[in-house]
């Protein structure tokens, strides 16, 4: 442990003051309660975290780098000279936390605010001059891996291009020069004002999360205000749109859609969508929120139940100059009823071999804990509702069941175990290892199955936690097919420690610590952590895997394994995979909707690899025109395929009929009709997953040997 911290602090503060003669715009200092909270958190994290890491010089360096990244992720505020001056603190933050002397991160934050003032002041001055958009120059808008600017001239040029790009985006959106200047000036002025309103608690929150996240991504510190917000979201009593937001590339971006919320029910928002503006009602002008802090945007979206909020959205799958969409939603609370499982039946296959697939959509693993504790025998839960739906589907003579867990971020572990039990006899479902290395096996102990027929599970990148536990168990038992995308990969367990309760504080003072304490493992031994669940048959993915999912974190816990649990596989569906894969590949070549989705994925992946953009107006308009032309060509192709336009090709219809794809024709016509009425297009992935299950039923019926190795189970199940 190093000492003489006060001397080092004085040297750092003197260096900062010497570099900036003008007085600091704000003076923020840590208080004693924050210093105490940091020291207590460090002791807890060092001793009781699943990945217990000592607070030493090595951890200090990680905290230092992450703190700077939290403040200036795109490296557009600090100069390299600032970083060099701060480097004296690189290996001293551990001593600062343990010694309850937190002046260093506050001194760094003061410099950060000074740089924000300088950069935004320059940005506002640049608006007075305007720009020449005939020049052939590029703007590098992804700068996370670039060095900080070495000179004032270099940082000034970065900001000149940054402001020029902001101007050009608005110009391409149809705004005139006066509107553009007013919009951007207001945007920069608002960002400047927010930086000057920072409080000591804000600085402490950022710093402590830099420490917590340096251990692993799901550990965090919640100050009194953040703790209150977290409690609201966990109780689902927040009146808003039901979306988890995060800051990314100047935009507040949708990270997760809460099942049953207005955003999810609207079916017009997706993970990765960027919020450019917020309006309080349909007849109210948008407030530009580009560059805003996430908590400020959340504050605008929240409101009274029944009131309207309108979002100006730049879609996740669109380029920076794409057309925005206007999404109107009515604020509402999120109740269990709105999250409940639901069912539908899809007819798949050719006309002479139709199969009925029962689809159960489960948005989350819910349970009415209060009703259960009160002894209500009819309490609602995910597994109970699914059991009821399975009974209804059996009465309706479905051939197979598809459980749709897309965008299901998890929930109750008990429900994941109970749900698995609906499809297996009895046996272990998941293993859980704590920080001491002790392993506990969670099992389904109720004999019998609610559904013993062909089963499929549809997952995507947003299927996480409890969803992954269920899908992994179904896959390990050979009980059914996993279809879709690689899942999120969250295989860890968190607990919330109330520091106020530990300190016997009667008022919110110290905050809370969300800490990882255990890890999940499949019954086959491997963890769902990092790798998630790999589907048996993969479908196209629009998800940005580099920025969404456990593997997107730079310090996620690694994949590992333990000894397998004692379990007996109940099916051999893997034997069907070669034939199912061939049928799937043949079918999608004739599915225009599926091919369009594959094109979207390819184009989106190309867009994501870009890190710079032209600042030449002609070039930008050309790029946008090419995108619009591609979409128009696609629309004409769909119309031609179903004979819905003057350019229709009767031969295309004949080919569909000759190939036995009348259902494809109908689905394409339904897609066009939906577009005309303003509704969403058909769910291409759900259609294909259902068709795969239809193939599985047909193969099982035609291959007696396979059917014998996948026998239907007998026995009732009581829920």
For the record, what CATH class of the domain at 339-493 and 520-573 applies?
Alpha Beta
Radius of gyration: 28 Å
The span between the termini is 58 Å
Low-confidence stretches: 1-24, 230-238, 642-680, 712-716
Give the tally of β-strands: 19
Counting helices, strands and paired strands, the structural category is alpha+beta
Strand content: 5-15%
Overall average residue pLDDT: 84
Instruction: Tally the helices.
Output: 25
Explain what this protein looks like in three dimensions.
The protein is α+β, with helices and mostly antiparallel strands and 719 residues long. Among the domains are: 32-215, no CATH class; 237-335, Pdz3 Domain; 339-493 and 520-573, 2-enoyl-CoA Hydratase, Chain A, domain 1. Helices cover 44% and strands 14% of the residues. It contains 25 helices and 19 strands. The strands form four sheets. Strands 3, 4, 5, 6, 7 and 8 form a six-stranded antiparallel sheet that branches. A six-stranded mixed sheet has the order 9-10-11-14-15-18. α16 (413-421) runs parallel beside α17 (466-476). The longest helix has 27 residues, at 103-129. It is globular and about 75 Å long. It starts with a helix and ends in a 10-residue tail after the last helix. The relative contact order is 0.09. Mean pLDDT is 84; it is low at 1-24, 230-238, 642-680 and 712-716.
